[in-house]
Amino acid sequence: MAIHSKGRIRDLHFLPLLFKALDMVLIYTSLFTLSLFFPHIEWVPHYNLLALVSILIFVFAAESVHLYQSWRGVDFSLLVKRVLIVWFVTIISLMMLGYVNKITAEYSRMLVSLWLVAVPILLLVWRTVFKGVLNYFRSKGYNSRQVAVLGVNSLANQVIGHIEKNPSLGMLLEGLYDDRGEDRHDQLVCPIVGDTETLVKNAQDGKIDLVYITLPMRAEERIKDVVNKLADTTVTVYLVPDIYTYQLFNGSWTNMAGHPVVSVFESPFLGVNSFAKRVQDIILSIIILTVISPLLLVISVAVKMTSVGPVLFKQRRYGMSGEEISVWKFRSMTTQDNGSEIKQATKNDARITRLGGFLRRTSLDELPQFFNVLTGGMSIVGPRPHAVAHNEFYRNQIRGYMLRHAVKPGITGWAQINGWRGETEKLEKMEGRIEHDLWYIGNWSSWLDIKIIFLTIFKGFIDRNAY
User: Of 141, 204, 291, 364, most Cβ neighbours within 10 A?
Assistant: First the structure.
């Protein structure tokens, strides 16, 4: 949060509004301009409707991923991902609306297809050009700001390192300040140029534009004191709390009753993200089930003919928010353990049928779970669901274990394509799996899902650790 001389939060609305307006104009004009290359296509009102609906969906989705926040300090690759994700959500939404209202035949497929491809390219082009212009002027000394950091610790080192490695930020380090002497600090990334009083004086003299306060949260009184003193200057002040000592899980800022709050544990699948992932699951599961339906039939007959028992095995597992769900699999064992104690499959396990061993090694026994995806209990990508008995055991053994249930369980996941599957006879193996599950949740994006699906096809089905 930025604090001006009166201590109130200050936001710059002009650039975000300009960026939003540019996107809206580009989405509309690109469709109209492309239509000019098709003389036989008449620009009728439903093309205006298409552009308008697209703009509304895009802007709504963009707000959900903070696309129009300040660029200063934001990794440009993250900005690219956000643009592509928002446009992907827009495309999916348009397809669903067109299908439900049965109006797709009223549009030129060639025109709309070209437009859907052109828009994200144009959105990224103008952002790249704008960033290049900013970088040029900043390299010439324009639009740069003198930055001071108050508080010597690892957090200050990270802030200073980021400023020095990213000259395009237009930030020039003026100095590091602390009330304690250098002899009390280890691994200083730059010398201390003064104490709090010196910082305030330099700010009053106009030598500093920005101040980052990296003092620990326990130094509340010191922070209040320096903020009050800096209120007598015109510098912009940023508080950089050491909240990351709490090992945030998908942490993000929001507000409650006008007060800034940070999430410590939060699911990434809220709002538009939840909608986008659900749409992706529905479309892909329908396509996959259509393609593999002959294989499902063959496996069903083979299971029935080679062993006594039902074709499918239904097991109780935990889903999103820890709610119990029933997960379907092709039966691969002679027993159907589903109680309070479940023994994991091991190498040469006598319970596994001859066909079951093949199904488990190739993950073909998991195919019925696409019906779980279609009905909403699971997702194609996510942490693999564990039996309820295993959950109750490991939740007391591994810190943060239940956080994996902040999202829907998946047929495949980040842990599986990285080799963390099969028997977990040692606690370290389950810890490795959970570590990868939590990394996935904290770094989720639609592109990560696509990457995992792609890698699963080539390396995730067959694994020597799967018994």
Answer: 364
Within this chain, do residues 104 and 166 fall inside the same structural domain, yes or no? no
Burial (CB < 10 A; 0-12, 13-18, 19+), residue 122, is middle
Q: Are 5 and 231 in contact (CB under 8 A)?
A: yes
Domain count, the chain: 3
Do the beta carbons of residue 232 and residue 5 sit within 8 Å? yes
Same domain for 303 and 421, yes or no, is yes
The residue type found at 106 is E
d(CA 359, CA 300): 11
Q: Residue 208 belongs to what domain range?
A: 145-246
- Provide the phi-psi class of 348: left if phi over 0, else alpha when psi is between -120 and 50, else beta: left
**Tokens standing for residue 423:** 């028997």
Q: What is the pLDDT of residues 361-387, one digit of tens each?
A: 888 888 999 999 999 999 999 999 888
CATH of the domain at 180: 3.40.50.720
Task: Give the whole-angstrom CA distance, residue 453 versus residue 176.
Answer: 47
Name the β-bridge partners of 315: 327
pLDDT digits (tens, 9 = 90+) for 74-94: 667 778 888 998 999 899 988
Q: Map tokens 């620009």 to a residue.
A: 43
Q: Which residue reads 């495949």 in tokens?
A: 412
Token digits for 208?
């500093």
Give burial (CB, 10 Å; 0-12/13-18/19+) of 206.
exposed
- Report if residue 408 sits inside a domain: yes
Q: Are residues 179 and 234 in the same domain?
A: yes
Q: Please, are residues 406 and 264 in contact by the beta-carbon 8 Å criterion?
A: no
Beta bridge partners of residue 447, listed in sequence order: none
Helix/strand/coil for 372: helix
Residue 67 maps to a domain: yes
Any domain includes 397? yes
Q: With H, G, I as helix, E, B as strand and everything else as coil, classify residue 35.
A: helix
Same domain, residue pair 52 and 171: no
Q: Which two tokens stand for residue 461?
A: 């089905």
Helices (H), 65-179: 76-101, 109-139, 154-165
Please, which residues have CB within 8 angstroms of residue 455's CB and are 6 or more apart in sequence?
Answer: 417
Cα gap 376→282, rounded to integer Å:
9
Task: Tell me the pTM.
Answer: 0.54
